[in-house]
Amino acid sequence: MILMEQRTLGRTGRDVSVVGQGTWQLGGDWGEVAEDDAFGVLDAAVASGITFLDTADVYGDGRSEQLIGRYLKDRPDADVLVATKMGRRADQVAENYVLDNFRTWNDRSRANLGTDTLDLVQLHCPPSGVYSSDAVYDALDTLVAEQRIAAYAVSVETCAEALTAIARPGVASVQIILNPFRLKPLDEVLPAAAAAGVGIVARVPLASGLLSGKYTRNTVFGPEDHRTYNRHGEAFDQGETFSGIDYATGVAAAAEFAELAPEGATPAQTALRWVIQQPGVTSVIPGARSVEQARANAAAAALPPLPQSTLDAVRDLYDRSIRAEVHDRW
User: Fold this and answer.
1) Could you tell me which residues are beta bridge partners of residue 83?
2) Which pTM value belongs to this model?
3) Cβ neighbours of residue 219 closer than 8 Å, sequence gap 6 or more
């Protein structure tokens, strides 16, 4: 097993790898992934030093959680922290974020993952008002007291939501979109989290694959792939697909970004390395649909830090091509 840099995940007190493994892809919203291929991805991630798996109860209607649970049952030696999410199984109104529903969703996730106590449960991008509700945090504290969960956190769409959650003493970490095409969290969210001892989990680090540099304006994604059906937020928040960037704009910007990759690194690895070295980031969670992708993502942790000239070039590209389209919206 390869050793990878570990960082403390906020108020959980547990260390996790700087590159984690996102498992949305294993659920099915990126196209079908065979069971054997899914287990191969998980095995490659763990063998590459990854100790942090991120999932959700709605990824494949629980398929992602079930695959992880079965994999870990057969790998009791795998020392990983599994973070799941809850809240998207109900209509997205604040009234549904109550203790009874939390217990129901929690029971399902614990069964899927095959454990009595979940390592970390994140509210899954709920309505904005949920982040400021005392009753919601009281309910989450109750789940901890009942030993259903070891810790709780939030996944957010906006910086304002992140800052509201960071101010709560029980929130262990915040999951937020962060990549070279989404820089706004650098301004306030990451400094506030660092000051409060809250972990930062960076999701959508490759802008749904744009930053890999392998897509063109003519690339066609399958009908079951969210990159086909959610480009304008038809199914869920637009920011989850290509970071909310117009596809053609993103392809052009990604071609420029690819030119910044250092020798021996792919554009995708360069994007991950950029995220890893942002002050305050705990772990970045790219997804993978193949063993090769999982290994390549993990290898980004071993790259040397990007020089200041590359960081400046990323900022310039963002300001010229991306900022006007996404900065104020999120």
Assistant:
1) 54, 120
2) 0.95
3) none
